[in-house]
Amino acid sequence: MKRIIIWVLICLPALASAQDDYKQRFEQLGSILPTPNSYRTASGAPGENYWQQKADYDIKVKLDEANNKITGTETVTYYNQSPHPLNYLWLQLDQNMRAKGSDSELTSTYTFFNDTIPAKFIEQYIANGGNSYDFEGGFKIDYVKDASGNPMNYLIQKTMMKIRLPQTLKPGEKISFSTGWSYNINDRMKGGGRSGFEYFEEDGNALYTIAQFYPRMAVYNDVEGWQNKQFLGSGEFALTFGDFNVEITVPNDHIVAATGMVQNAKEVLTKEQYNRYEKALKSTEQTFIVTEEEAIANEKDKSTQYETWKFTAKNVRDFGFATSRKFIWDGMMVELSETKPFAQSFYPKEGNPLWEKESTKAVKNTLELYSKRTFDYPYPQATSVHAASIGMEYPMICFNFGRPNPDGTYSVRTQLGMTYVIVHEVGHNYFPMIVNSDERQWAWMDEGLNSFLESNVMWEYYPDLPYTDNSPQAITGYMKSSKDAQRAIMTNPEQVLRLGPNAYAKPAAALNLLRNTILGPELFDESFKAYAQRWKFKHPTPADFFRTMEDASAVDLDWFWRGWFYSTDHVDIAVDEVKYYRIASEEQSKEKKTKTPKGDLGKKEGEEEQKNTDFSEGPSYINVQDTPDFWYGEYRSKADDKAIKARYKDKHFYEVIFTNEGGLVSPLKIKFDYKDGTSETRMIPAEIWRKNEKKTRKVFILDKEVANVTFDPNNELADTEINNNVFPKVEESTKLDEFKKKGK
C-alpha cells in the first residue's frame, strides 16, 4: 500500500513553479500594442475622432489588343478629411515593379534545388528577377496636370509617385488633378503576375485580367501617415475608398467583367443577351447571358471595331476588370437577409464543364456564409473570372484558377482547388475590400481571416470534397518545422519565408481553434461580427482586431495572440505521468507504511524521480485525517469531516502531470477512457499554465477507474507530437493513430 498526506498533495502545484521556466507568456500585450487614443479606442472600436481620406476617380482606358497595351487617362478628386495640412500626395505605381532595374528584380533570389530545371524558370525566376524576356514593363507617365490643365510638379520614386502641391491642402479641402499613362501588359505564362493576359494558341485569342492598371492614391491615416512602402511583390495593397466612373474601350466582340455595375448593357450586348441579363438580375436560378455556343462563334473572327463599356462603383478601394471575346457569362441573384447581390461568372470554353457547374454556385455560397458571420454583402454584384494558374481579388471581381483537361474531364483535386479558390477570392470582398486592412504591412489580416472563413464555407457547403486546409491539425507540420524556416505571423509579408503557412494557414488555424475550442462558436461569432461591423469601410490595424475580440467576448486572449501571432512556438503538450490515488479506509490508515510510494515524495535527495509508466501497481492511498483546528484560523464553525470522508471514499483521484514541450501554451482537453468501456472529456483553460509555463498538473476526481488518459483526443489543438499524448504510453505512431480513431 502507498500513502501520502493530502495537504502536501494540494500544495505541490505551487511548489513546482520554477522561475527559470517562466517566460512571460501570460504577460499582457499592453507594452506591445499602440496606446489607445481618440482615433482608436482601447476597446478596439473607432474613436470619436476617427477619420479617413477619400479619393474619387474618373478613368478612361483603352485596350490595344494588337500590341497588348493599356493606355489611359484619369481625373482624381482627393478629399483631405484628416486634421493635417498636406503639402504633397503619394500615389502607387505598382506596374513599375515590372520595369527593368526595379527593386523586385534586383532583390529577387533563387536556389537550385537540384541539377534539373525547366527552361521557363530561367526567365521567370532567375534572370533579372523574371524580367528578362522581351518585355518592357512599368508605367509611362505622360503628364500630371491640375484642374486648370497646368502641369504639376511630380517625382517618380520606384513604385511610388509624389505630387508636390502648389499650395497646402488644408483639412476639409479637396483637390482634383489628372494623369495620362500607358503600359505594356505582361504575358502571365512567361512572367507570372497578379494581372496580365493569357494567350490561347489554338484560336489565337487572349484573355485579359487587368489590375493595378492606373495610378492609385496611397493611404494617409492616423497610424503611419502616408503608407508609401515600396511594392516588391509579396506585400499587397493599402488603398483609399472612393467612387469610380470607368470607361473601358475594347474590341466590340469582347465581353467585359469589372468592378461595379455596367451602365450601358443595352448598348454593348445583343438584344437577346440584354434580355437574358435583365432576367438573371432578378432570378435565383442560374441564367446564361452569353452561352458557350455564342462564345465559340465569337472566337472565330477578331473585330477591328471598338466599343466602350461604362461602369460605376461606389465606396470601393480599387478597380479591376477582365475582357475577352472568349467569355461565357452566367449569373443569378442571391437573396440575403437585407441585400440581393448578383453572383456571376465569366469563363472561356476551356473552363467547362466545371465552371458552368460550380463557379456561380461557389460565389453564392460564399456570400451567404460570409454575410451570416459579418454583415450582408453591401455591393450590387460579385464576379468570378476564370484565368489560368491564378487566384487574385479586387472589389466585386476576382480571377481564379481550376481548368479541366482538354477533353473536359477533371479530377476531384481540380474541382476542390477551383472551388476553394473561388470561395477564397470572393471572400476577399469582405477582407480587405470592405474591412480595409493594410495588406502591405499585415498580410494575415486579410489572408488569414479570409482563409478562416473560407474553411468554414468549405466544411459547411462542400462536406464531400476532401478539403483539409486551415484546421489546427493541418498546420502542425509547419509549426514543428525548423524555426529558421519560420517567422512570426506579425511579420511584414516581404520578410516572411513561407507566405502560405504564415499569412494564410496558421492564422486561419488559430482562429478555427479559437472559435471551436477556446471561445466556442456562439461567443466567437458574436465577437468576430463585432470586429467586422465596427471596421467595415474603415482601416483597422492588428490592435483593433485583438482588442475587439477581447472586448466583445470578455475573455483575456493576450496569451493567445502572444503565442500564436508573435512567436514561432508550437503546441506539444506531453502527458508526462498520471498518478492514481484512493482514500485509505480506517483499517488501511492504521496499518504501518510498508513501502515508499513513487513520485516526488518518495524521492531521496540526489535520486531521479520515479515515474509511473502505467496503472499496473494500482492506486496509492491517501490518509485523510480530521481537520486540525489551526486550519480554521478565526472561523468559529467547522467542516463535517466525517461527511467529507464518506463523500469521497469511493472516488478515484488522478493527478495528471503535463509538460509543455513546444513552448506554446494551450488549453488542455483531456479524455478519460474508463475500464468499463465508457469515456468522458474535460476541458481546462490555458490559464492553468500561468504559474509555470513548462509543467503543470491537475487532480481529477472521478467516479470510475481509468484505463487511459489522452490529451487532445480529436486532434483539434494543433499538437505537433501525438506520441506523447496518451498515458499509458503508446510507442508507435501508427498504433496511436488507430487508438485515437477508435476512441479507446
UniProtKB/TrEMBL annotation:
<dbReference type="InterPro" id="IPR027268">
    <property type="entry name" value="Peptidase_M4/M1_CTD_sf"/>
</dbReference>
<feature type="compositionally biased region" description="Basic and acidic residues">
    <location>
        <begin position="597"/>
        <end position="614"/>
    </location>
</feature>
<dbReference type="GO" id="GO:0004177">
    <property type="term" value="F:aminopeptidase activity"/>
</dbReference>
<feature type="region of interest" description="Disordered">
    <location>
        <begin position="589"/>
        <end position="619"/>
    </location>
</feature>
<feature type="signal peptide">
    <location>
        <begin position="1"/>
        <end position="18"/>
    </location>
</feature>
<keyword id="KW-0031">Aminopeptidase</keyword>
<dbReference type="InterPro" id="IPR050344">
    <property type="entry name" value="Peptidase_M1_aminopeptidases"/>
</dbReference>
<dbReference type="InterPro" id="IPR014782">
    <property type="entry name" value="Peptidase_M1_dom"/>
</dbReference>
<keyword id="KW-0732">Signal</keyword>
<dbReference type="Pfam" id="PF01433">
    <property type="entry name" value="Peptidase_M1"/>
</dbReference>
<keyword id="KW-0378">Hydrolase</keyword>
<keyword id="KW-0645">Protease</keyword>
<protein>
    <submittedName>
        <fullName>Aminopeptidase</fullName>
    </submittedName>
</protein>
<feature type="domain" description="Peptidase M1 membrane alanine aminopeptidase">
    <location>
        <begin position="407"/>
        <end position="564"/>
    </location>
</feature>
